[in-house]
Amino acid sequence: MDRQTVGGQCCNRDMFDTVLDALAQATGCDRSKLGALVGEVPNSEDLTAAQLCKRIAAQERLSHAVQATQMCDTTAFTTVRHTDDVQQQVPDHLHGRTAATELASAMVITPTSARFRIHDATRAVADHPALLSLVGTGSVSMTGLRGVLSATEVLDPDLRRAVDGQLAADAMTSRLTPGRLAQAAERRVLAADPLAADKRAERARLRRSVRLSDPIDGTAAVLARLRAEEALAVFTRLDRTARGMRRDGDERSIDDLMADVLVESLLGVALVGGESAASPATWQSVDGQEPWWWSAPHHRRRTPNRGSTTRRGTTSARWTGRWICPTTTHSAWRNRPRTHRRRSHLGCRLRPRCRW
Q: Measuring CA to CA, which residue among 332, 334, 325, 319 is closest to residue 353?
């Protein structure tokens, strides 16, 4: 792809060619005729600031319009697959069973993401046709539509369609950002169903969870979704304890102190701040990845008998607790499935001696 660079900025003619290629495939038009109809696209360097601003806004509307069209096509595709399964006398609970897998393969996303897209598209087409028709016009964005979908989830389909018409009128009479549109949706939902807030709170409070993110640069995040009063109590206690330690002369920052207090209260291990805590003693890159990388934490912990022997008749270090491999000292790493441990251990310098 040839691109000329002028004043540090890259010409985007080839990028528009890519857009036209995708547009020709999406509409079934002849690419050469479409290119002749559009003509030559001016470079960014040849436009004024006002012209660039208008073009950026048009590009934003175009991207949202394409996503709205994709929602309609996704719903149609799901309907076709559902109809095919009905004709083939597939059991009811398996209707449309391959739709998410096919879309995931076509769009290069995970089946879970494809199922979420199918769910949102089906609801938008069925319950919010007025708002969906405004996506791409500049009145409603896809972000705003998704906020409305989340806010109206607790309503019955009939009430959703009533709220859809009201929100479409609001969006046409005033320019609403995605956040403002979501707030308007919340108000309309409460007006349509005064108990909607209680329903949302009841459903949300039943979906408590604790999740672990993948490690980045030797750190990972533990994300806890708790009841509001419990989350406030936990944060308040950590904050007050950290500020008290800070007043007593601890030189660590408030954020560091809160994190250390949380770990110490759960693990019972006193943490010492400073450079000594910045880099763990077991740090060693394994094939370009961090030694404690995990894709799916293993929650079932095996507790084998200590001192058991291997097939060669020697005492295994992994059973006796003699962790000779520096990459296996992390507790979360040891609890991972065996295949994951073996894959992460390929770069260990002690591999010839380690039984992992």
A: 325
Q: What is the pTM of this model?
A: 0.63
Which residue's entry shows tokens 């509001």?
Answer: 228
268 CA to centre of own chain: 32
Q: Got the DSSP string for 31-58?
A: HHHHHHHH-PPPPGGGS-HHHHHHHHHH
Segment among 1-15, 30-44, 126-140 with least mean pLDDT? 1-15
Task: For the beta carbon of residue 16, count every other beta carbon within 10 angstroms.
Answer: 18
310: left (phi over 0), alpha (psi -120 to 50) or beta: beta
The H or E element spanning position 240 is: helix 228-247
Of the candidates 63, 175, 60, 76, the residue with the CA atom closest to the CA atom of residue 124: 76
Nearest by Cα to 120 from 110, 108, 128: 128
211 by Cβ neighbours in 10 Å (0-12 / 13-18 / 19+) ranks as exposed
Task: Encode pLDDT of 273-295 as tens digits.
Answer: 554 455 555 555 556 566 555 54
Token pair 């003509």 is found at 39
Q: In sequence order, which residues have a C-beta less than 8 Å from that of residue 158 and are 6 or more positions away?
A: none
If we measure between CA atoms, which residue out of 236, 138, 217, 244 comes closest to residue 181?
138
Dist CA 80 CA 317 (whole Å) = 57
Q: What pLDDT band is residue 109 in, cutting at 50, 70 and 90?
A: very high
Of 258, 234, 235, nearest to 246 (Cα)?
A: 258
> What values do phi and psi take at 309, rounded to 5?
-100, 155
337: left (phi over 0), alpha (psi -120 to 50) or beta: beta
Query: b or e along 34-73 (b: 16 or more beta carbons within 10 Å of the residue's beta carbon)?
Result: ebeeeeebebbeeeeeeeeeeeeeeeebeebebbbeebee
Residues 74, 121: contact at Cβ < 8 Å? yes
Q: What is the DSSP string of 251-285?
A: -S-HHHHHHHHHHHHHH------SGGGTS-TT---
Instruction: Give the angle subtended at the CA of 339 by the CAs of 337 and 345, to the nearest 5°.
Output: 105
Residue 234 structure tokens: 């936990």
Residue with the two structure tokens 């672990």: 212
* Tally of CB atoms within 10 A around 136: 20
